[in-house]
Please model this.
Amino acid sequence: MSWVVNFKHGVHLPQIGWWLDAQKSQARSFVSHAHSDHIASHREILATRETASLMRLRMGGKRQEHILAFDQAWTADFGCEVKLHPAGHIFGSAMFHATTAHGRLLYTGDFKLRPSPGAETCVVPRADVLIMETTFGLPRYVFPPQHEIERDIVDFCRQALADKVTPVLYAYSLGKTQELLQIVGGAGLPVMLHATSYKVTRRYTELGMKLPPYALLETKGHAGHVVIAPPMMNHLEPLTWIHPKRTAVATGWAMDHGAIYQNKCDAAFPLSDHADFPDLLALVDRVRPKLVYTLHGFAKEFAATLRARGTEAWAIGQQNQMDLAL
Model:
């Protein structure tokens, strides 16, 4: 027998009765990390200690929690052995590795192979079936070396401070903010965090991550500091009271032309918590699967790339029939 993989607002494995990153409330779901598009008010979850804690912070509520340390074996229903492995995406993010009579299955969730100062280093086990995220699944997405990205961010901040201008770095409050804090604060620059980012960062500290000093952003006293804040959208108040300022966004989409104008910033840095195209290929080479399912981003295009390389691969929930070779 082979694995049965269904998809509707998340991945469902009916043979073991678990969902993976279900986006709507389910009886039981593995939660790879606590970003809002990967969590919901499930009755029962499987997650790392960090993810469960961050999920409580972000959405509240009570649920039955099965907490696993990395590489700790846990037996689910129907004789399925599950282990979680670091995904390298954000603090506590995990890959789901299941072994049954059907073989081995690996679900990556969001992942990043290159080491990050804001997450555990990714560990990739072997599997027969691979379900992987493919956010940057086109050949044009090749990120610069990490040290170059970090150097450019620090240089941007130092130049702004030298010019008596407040540098404001826009980044998601969970994951990217703490990575930026490690980079900028680690370079010796004083940092203030927007209240939303400050709340999440406090939880990182409580969970044991060592971080450089940081302070809560206030309307007075921010001069001479690097400010890290979420992108100014939805319910967040624009930081119009910080003046003068020089703004930048940290995102893998900075590789796209026009990223500066789209984000209405002075600069854009390709600091991503996802794998780029070469690392997506590298993950498949490490796992050596017989079958790959791709999810998110350029899933259909990356599946076609894998088939051209000799690996059976299909984009979940998308039409693939036009990709058949004639």
